[in-house]
Amino acid sequence: MHEASLPPDPLHGSAAIAVRSLQGHDHARWDAFVDTCPEATFFHRAGWHTIMQQGFRHDSHFLYAEQHGHIAGVLPLAHLRSRLFGSSLVSLPFCLYGGIAGGGAAVRQALDSAALALARRLGVGHLEYRWREAEQQPDAAWLHKPLYATFRRALHPEAEQNLLAIPRKQRAVVRKAMAGGLHSAIDYDLERFYPLYASSVHRLGTPVFARRHFALLRTVFGGDCEILTVYHGQQAQASVLLFYFRDEVLPYYGGGSVLARRTGANDFMYWEAMRRASARGCRLFDFGRSKLGTGAYDFKKNWGFTPQPLPYACRLVRAKALPEVNPLNPKYALFIRAWRRLPLPLANLLGPHIVRQLG
């Protein structure tokens, strides 16, 4: 994308604002800004440019606004081409959060204008920002669908205080799992994680991500991407891939065996994620997003987390209406039932080709 400049920003000095595209040599500068920007999230990190390009083969357009020679705001975008749902420009596909991070009004306007111009040039159906906070949302020209909520809560430095913060009924499940002899360990490969994850999403009727996706995440994000596995004896029963960002932890991909419900391995897994993150110095647990009216939504409420509606915003570009990319759509019910009946090896083979179109 060519550089675009705007007139001086009266709120932030006399320097013009230049909107540029992220290049390889800019990654360190970009991440240095993200690390200190209050609105930024793990999903604003420059490494997602690599994940989108190499992992999903979606063209990435990571824009940043520069002023006074410094980055003043960022907007990661990826061009999602789907045979199922058309073309869109999203900040950011396969991620919980996105949108513009940082900047004053003029900086944000510059990035927003550049994104809309890019969306029109690409001829996409719509432009989407996955805002986390309601006050970040753009003007009335954008459409909103109240589909998801996120669940975030502070962690105490002491493990016992975190345990006591879990409501009594759910805490009893965790204590029973502890008494049942479950234990956890950090894994340094995908050998236990991937089969547990793949079989879990298959039972849910959801296409699976490829094993190489998780390998790439581990390579790109290094120590900020960790696998925690729960065992009963020598048998792995549940496993979760965690993201770390500043003083936050986010369990992002996980799964359990068919025995996990009986032994409480899934519950114990999330407790261990909390306990270990607190010991590591994390002070916020992000339980991720869930769709309203689902079992996952209720599960997180049962842990004492308060749902925070996610104000995702979309702007129509060429489309007349937004696509219904939502598993709660009745049209998906037949697909979900059929997918569950596929043999697991076949589902694992086909899934990555389908899931990359969903975003």
Please describe what this structure looks like.
Pfam families: Acetyltransf_6. It comes from Janthinobacterium kumbetense. InterPro entries: Acyl_CoA_acyltransferase, BioF2-like_GNAT_dom, PEP-CTERM_FemAB-rel, PG_Glycine_Bridge_Synth. This is FemAB family PEP-CTERM system-associated protein. This protein is an alpha+beta fold and 359 residues long. The protein has helices at 27-36, 47-55, 105-122, 159-164, 168-179, 193-204, 211-221, 260-263, 265-280, 295-302, 330-341, 344-355, and strands at 4-6, 17-21, 63-67, 70-75, 78-82, 86-91, 126-129, 143-144, 148-154, 182-187, 225-232, 235-245, 248-256, 284-291, 307-309, 313-316. The strands form three sheets. A seven-stranded mixed β-sheet has the order 10-11-12-13-14-9-15. A five-stranded mixed β-sheet has the order 5-6-7-16-8, covered by helices on one side. Strands 1-2-3-4 form a four-stranded antiparallel β-sheet. Strand 11 (225-232) and strand 12 (235-245) form a beta hairpin. The protein is globular, with a radius of gyration of 21 Å. The two termini are 23 Å apart.
Question: Outline of this structure?
Answer:
By secondary structure, the protein is of the alpha+beta class. It has helices at 27-36, 47-55, 105-122, 159-164, 168-179, 193-204, 211-221, 260-263, 265-280, 295-302, 330-341, 344-355, and strands at 4-6, 17-21, 63-67, 70-75, 78-82, 86-91, 126-129, 143-144, 148-154, 182-187, 225-232, 235-245, 248-256, 284-291, 307-309, 313-316. The chain folds into two domains: 4-147 and 310-325, Aminopeptidase (3-Layer(aba) Sandwich); 150-309, Aminopeptidase, CATH 3.40.630.
